[in-house]
């Protein structure tokens, strides 16, 4: 699993965060994992990340900070992995 990813707000939403997620999920999938879990706890300082999981096909467990997905999203076409 991934404990934490920290990116500068200056690069977040340029696709780097998506490319990192795609590569991590690909490696997890190759390791035999079919389902993925992410966490997000909203704070005043991380509002820019609020839509990260749903934008990548994850769905939230009702009333929870857990987000679940089972499909590796497409990588941004302008970033080579």
Describe this structure in words.
This protein has 81 residues and is α+β, with helices and mostly antiparallel strands. It has a domain at 16-69. 23% of the residues lie in helices and 12% in strands. The protein has helices spanning 16-30, 52-55, and strands spanning 36-39, 59-60, 66-69. A three-stranded antiparallel beta sheet has the order 1-3-2, with no helix packed on it. The two termini are 20 Å apart. The mean pLDDT is 91.
List the helices and strands and how they pair.
Elements: H1 16-30, E1 36-39, H2 52-55, E2 59-60, E3 66-69
Main attributes of the structure:
81 residues, alpha+beta, 3-stranded antiparallel β-sheet, 2 helices, 3 strands
How do you describe this structure in short?
This protein has about 80 residues and is α+β, with helices and mostly antiparallel strands. The protein has two helices and three strands, in the order H-E-H-E-E.
């Amino acid at each position: 699993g991934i404990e934490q990813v920290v990116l500068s707000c200056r690069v977040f939403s340029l696709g780097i965060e998506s490319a990192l997620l795609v590569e991590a999920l690909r490696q997890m999938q190759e390791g035999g994992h079919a389902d993925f879990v992410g966490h997000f706890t909203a704070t005043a300082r991380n509002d820019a990340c609020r839509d990260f999981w749903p934008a990548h096909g994850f769905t939230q467990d009702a009333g929870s900070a857990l987000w679940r997905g089972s499909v590796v999203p497409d990588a941004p076409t302008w970033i080579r992995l």
